[in-house]
Write a structure and sequence with these properties.
homodimer; DNA-binding; 3-stranded antiparallel β-sheet; elongated; 187 residues
DNA sequence: CACACCTACTCAACTAATTGACTATGGGGT
DNA sequence: ACCCCATAGTCAATTAGTTGAGTAGGTGTG
């Protein structure tokens, strides 16, 4: 149900093909609503049938043709209605690593430490990429100026959520590593 | 695939019925691997068939009978193996509210503010509940003592992850509310 | 100049997750 | 007396999400 609105929200950035959307999703929407390309193609089909988006085929010379999608007025209205309603379901996190941590006490601490270190360096990489997205969004302005003047601040606020989430993640990793070190030193 | 190990990890706490597991899941495992009761019953069936858990029927007097499940040695080994391998997929978050925030720029700021305030008070409630779980786990000991002496610290580390996550969430809400206030004051 | 990767998808099969109804008994409140 | 909630589940239907293969030309790399 929500994938529908995630796609409509992505199209607020302007016309896009399924392929382009898949990439946009991968770097931004995926942070709070992941979807595979196949899911997107199916959803786009449905949305076009329901008249919430419009498709036009763009002939290309040295590439396969593509279908570009735009929000219709109906789509925009539907999305605005959705955006004003309280969420139907709370945030859901699925994190395999935390299952492993929950069950870690039967495992060699050195192995667990490695898992946490991997997570930490992954989070660092993610934060770096977020920083670059942030710079692109701000386009030279200070955050203050941007938040005062920009037409759309939604994408920036969700980016902020992603950044604080990864920072938290990093702090948690550091904390766990310190605890594991202590335990190994004593145990 | 991971639900399997989430269930096995839950059974590290000891024997439980499907019904009890559903409740345990709701308050602890659900924080990083949500599952409905129906999912759990099916998974327990499969795990029992695969010999990773054992079921025994407990006759009850004034209640329906129940089946209690315990980890078998095979189950424990399987779980330990899982816990030592790097995760196959990265953390996935699904958060309807963030879709709404992404699309918020067509919405009355006062309505958006309410959504954020709801999230904030929900996070506060969650944090309170986490605090109580924490106190129960520590059982009077200081965190330091607990982390040094306890047999199993996995559940505590995942609880810590939940706590830092909600704290971060709260900070993000405050931040967004401040920004919205600014914007309304100016716009 | 071979080989892998990029664009831009489609199709089919499968597993996982959600929703709602149903069974049956007991206890507490109005 | 009636209704709802708690216990302890089962069953069936539907939707959502995953995986892997296939198509077909173009581009970049050693």
């Amino acid at each position: 149900m929500s994938l529908k609105y995630a796609v409509l929200a992505a199209l607020l950035e302007g016309e896009a093909s399924g392929y382009e959307l898949a990439k946009v999703f991968d770097v931004s929407l995926a942070n709070f609503w992941p979807a595979t390309p196949q899911q997107l193609y199916r959803e786009l089909e449905r949305l076009a049938q329901d008249g919430l988006i419009e498709a036009r085929v763009v002939q290309q010379e040295r590439r396969p043709n593509k279908r570009m999608f735009t929000l219709t007025e109906a789509g925009r209205r539907d999305l605005d209605t959705f955006a004003a309603e309280p969420p139907r379901r709370p945030t859901a996190i699925r994190d395999e690593l935390l299952i492993k941590i929950q069950a870690m006490d039967g495992t060699d601490p050195a192995v667990t430490r490695e898992l946490i270190e991997e997570r930490r360096s992954w989070s660092r990489g993610k934060l770096d990429r977020y920083e670059r997205v942030r710079d692109r969004l701000l386009g030279g302005r200070t955050e203050e100026d941007y938040l005062r003047d920009a037409d759309r601040i939604g994408p920036y606020l969700t980016l902020m959520a992603g950044i604080t989430f990864e920072e938290e993640n990093l702090r948690w990793c550091e904390r766990v590593l310190a605890i594991l070190k202590q335990r190994v030193a004593l145990g």
